[in-house]
Description:
GO terms for molecular function: ATP binding. By secondary structure, this protein is α/β, with parallel strands linked by helices. It has helices at about 15-25, 40-50, 65-70, 75-80, 100-105, 125, 130-135, 165-170, 180-190, 200-210, 225-235, 240-245, 265-280; strands at about 30, 55-60, 70, 95, 110-115, 135-140, 145, 155-160, 175. About 45% of the residues lie in helices and about 15% in strands.
Amino acid sequence: xxxxxxxxxxxxxxxxxxxxxxxxxxxxxxxxxxxxxxxxxxxxxxxxxxxxxxxxxxxxxxxxxxxxxxxxxxxxxxxxxxxxxxxxxxxxxxxxxxxxxxxxxxxxxxxxxxxxxxxxxxxxxxxxxxxxxxxxxxxxxxxxxxxxxxxxxxxxxxxxxxxxxxxxxxxxxxxxxxxxxxxxxxxxxxxxxxxxxxxxxxxxxxxxxxxxxxxxxxxxxxxxxxxxxxxxxxxxxxxxxxxxxxxxxxxxxxxxxxxxxxxxxxxxxxxxxxxxxxxxxxx
Length: 283
């Protein structure tokens, strides 16, 4: 099983090498990178490229590691016992399987995505160490041990909101997805919008990359936001010449709400536009 990208996902050579190394080593692939660089989509494309089922565990601030294994619903069992329900004699009826249990017992080797692990409590990664290492866990309520039929391909994403424990990092293969250069961005655009006007893409990329370089920007626009913006530019039939205009009134590009996602950044560009107009009048 080797991953080489797909028709809808442009994977750089270092990224494909990282994916295949994690598969060979049978270790989780920990993927970091700024939001919008395709970390989550990577797992979907790996599953597609390898023809494997995808199991997604979306992590929240309240998620506990135990939920990935199973949960015992004691409250429902107590209620059913009070109602005389015959199901209470079988405790397994009140065991809810988690995503790891699902991945361990899948009929085919799956891709398991643990998405945004850094959102959870700091102890969350450590709580998963043994299960991810041994690929098995014990169900205390039923006395059974759940072992992985086939070791799943585990992809773990992080936005660096929290530092991950060293013990956890030692058990992972790590890859940081760098922000794409202009050539890679062009390839990504070509994959998503084949046949789009070359001049429009050229001007859009120039504007987009220039915006990312503006000092003081709180949130740089991402690759996914570039694709949204291009879709709007095509839909509204914006001419390439409109993007090229750089006087004070046109400093903020049309439909900038797809790129600038907070009032501080919009205000920053408005101030830059004001300064440019003032300099032009002074000249």
